[in-house]
Automatic annotation (TrEMBL), chains A, B:
PANTHER family noted in UniProt: D-RIBITOL-5-PHOSPHATE CYTIDYLYLTRANSFERASE (PTHR43015:SF1)
The protein, known as: D-ribitol-5-phosphate cytidylyltransferase
MF GO annotations: D-ribitol-5-phosphate cytidylyltransferase activity; protein homodimerization activity
Gene name tied to this protein: CRPPA
Domain annotation D-ribitol-5-phosphate cytidylyltransferase C-terminal: ranges: 198-340
Enzyme class, first EC level, given as a word: transferase
Job of this protein: Cytidylyltransferase required for protein O-linked mannosylation. Catalyzes the formation of CDP-ribitol nucleotide sugar from D-ribitol 5-phosphate. CDP-ribitol is a substrate of FKTN during the biosynthesis of the phosphorylated O-mannosyl trisaccharide (N-acetylgalactosamine-beta-3-N-acetylglucosamine-beta-4-(phosphate-6-)mannose), a carbohydrate structure present in alpha-dystroglycan (DAG1), which is required for binding laminin G-like domain-containing extracellular proteins with high affinity.
């Protein structure tokens, strides 16, 4: 994802080695080398650093000037903080991301009572990423004791202790927190869902006057979701998919079946966009089900179940939405509003249990 | 919620005072008194303590022996930790919940570089609740300086500094974390949803032999959801509602309309169970829609939209689920499995966008 990073060395426990190789192959990662993890944090990092040393036989890796150390439990690291710590490390020899403390830190006495509490404003939580001149951190690990390797938790401290390098501290974003407890997995899932729902593309099968129902629906979606919404008439779809839009609303005013939706699904399949995250597609149909022959139209639309099952294989979640389209203007507005709420929820939740359903607004 | 707590004093900013009064009235809280919050943490706590002092004119509150201090940003506090800190405070004069540190804590120098890092294993995060002999903490606040009141963050430290009381530290549960960032709100929402989905009641409209579809569905739900499932035949429903079950699956094998569901909805309405959290009710119907006259049955079932709109007022989320019931055993199993997935998702997500929908499995 970050083009100026040359090599990525990942420490993996022996038990997970095969699974990790599978992931690298599945997502076609090119820059990753694997080393076996140690039993402690510092031993794993040391193994990674050794792989980058000059004297490795048969290694395709070359010794870098600056090395960034990061951990997998902080998945939301942004390029700008990587750049900041790498730049600061080049200048100072070492650098690390910090965050304000959320709780006061205290020191217990041996009998489990309060010995003293630290002033919260004068301390920080040390987070990742951290960066170092390679020669500094490698030298520090070569000198450090078995006690350090067993019980140490802080690389910046090793650089200070063994190489007398004072790390530059860089303010990180709130998203650098450590995914530790079950609640953190809930939070991480919600953050990912929010990110991939930030941009919605509405595909219209018509370019009629601005007053038509598709545009009403667009307005209501804007009220419902605080995201960017783009209208497509089909020809620019390839570009929109390339820009990594993960949410599509296919508005079918003119057609009564799935021609437009089918076109979109084919393009999505070819693009491999959905390898990493599920793509949501909602096929919207307008119907005055009190006046037309309900049964026939429904049968037509029930094909969505088969269609949804088929595209599920490629991680595309397809749902149908039937919007009641009566003559009465007020009722139409109500229907559109409810439709917008359903669309917003399907996009935000990305829940595979509802694929193939025909929801009604 | 905790019967041995006599009075609860809440510090509220002037701007939120009216809203807070509204909440107290809505949920009929009996033991809560309100005081105006100060501009800092310690000033707010001091205001609360003053309200409990002996010399308050016109106060209905009396001075307690032990006072527990807690903050609203840790909503998942359990009775057992409250009891632990209160008991320890009675013995030691002060006590507080602690948690292991997730990140290493460091001390920056004035120029933004690392001065030193603390050994993570020797420090703890100080959380809430904390408890004190009332006389200890009130005396500490009366003596503490303006600097303490402005910049201090730790009540245990005040008891130590001014009353020489060494607080007993009590290990808290992971759920005592502080809801601070947006991701914490996501996590809190997921935790609440998980808690109120821990117990499901399946209401059967029949007591036929064990082989019938309702029991198959129950089996599949057990596979899908790791929660306790109780079967009700209707007569014990009152008791189940009293035990605060928030999730109901109404299985209609014998009836084709909503008689059983309607009975349940009436009982829920009378119980006021849904004041605090939404109750999910899923009305399940079996239908071989390839053989019976689809149109007529559907029209019957479409009444669910009106019914759902009506009970939405009382925070009850009603959805319908149509399970395809063919002669073919394999197909029936597939249908039941998909139905169980949909039910599990509706219960876990509790999303009001889907109320009144008739989902199809």
């Amino acid at each position: 994802r970050v083009c100026w990073i040359k090599d990525i060395v990942v420490s993996v426990t022996r038990d997970n080695m095969e699974a990790m190789k599978g992931i690298i192959q599945k997502y076609q990662h090119k820059r990753i080398s694997l080393v076996e993890a140690g039993v402690t944090r510092h031993r794993s990092i040391f193994n990674g650093l050794k792989a980058l040393a000059e004297d490795q036989p048969d290694s395709k890796l070359s010794k870098p000037e600056v090395v960034i150390i990061h951990d997998a439990v902080r998945p939301f690291v942004e390029e700008d903080i990587l750049l900041k710590v790498a730049t600061a490390a080049k200048e100072h020899g070492a650098a690390g991301a910090i965050r304000p403390l959320v709780s006061t830190v205290i020191s217990p006495s041996a009998d489990g009572c309060l010995d003293h509490s630290l002033e919260r404003a004068r301390h920080r939580a040390s987070e990742m990423p951290q960066a170092f001149l390679y020669d500094v951190i490698y030298a520090a690990y070569q000198q450090c004791s078995d006690y350090d390797l067993e019980f140490g938790t802080e690389c910046l401290q090793l650089a200070l202790k063994y190489c007398h390098v004072k790390a530059k501290l860089v303010e990180g974003s709130p998203d650098l927190w450590k995914v530790t407890y079950k609640r953190d997995l809930y939070a991480a899932e919600s953050i990912i869902k929010e990110r991939i729902s930030q941009h919605i593309c509405i595909v219209m099968d018509t370019k009629e006057d601005e007053e038509h129902v598709g545009h009403h629906l667009e307005e209501m979606l804007k009220n419902e979701l605080n995201v960017s919404i783009q209208i497509s008439t089909g020809r620019d779809l390839q570009q929109i998919i390339l820009e990594q839009c993960y949410s599509f609303v296919c508005v079918n005013v003119m057609t009564s079946a799935f021609e437009e939706t089918q076109k979109l699904l084919n393009m999505l399949k070819e693009s491999h966009l959905s390898v990493l995250y599920p793509v949501v597609v909602i096929s919207v149909h307008f119907l005055d089900y009190k006046s037309v022959h309900f049964d026939h139209k429904m049968e037509n639309l029930m094909q969505i179940r088969e269609l949804a099952k088929e595209v599920k294989e490629s991680n595309v979640l397809l749902c149908g939405l039937l919007i009641y389209y009566p003559q009465d203007e007020q009722k139409l507005q109500d229907s559109l509003r409810q439709g917008a709420t359903i669309i917003a929820t399907l996009i935000k939740e990305r829940n595979s249990a509802f694929i193939g359903q025909l929801l009604i607004a």
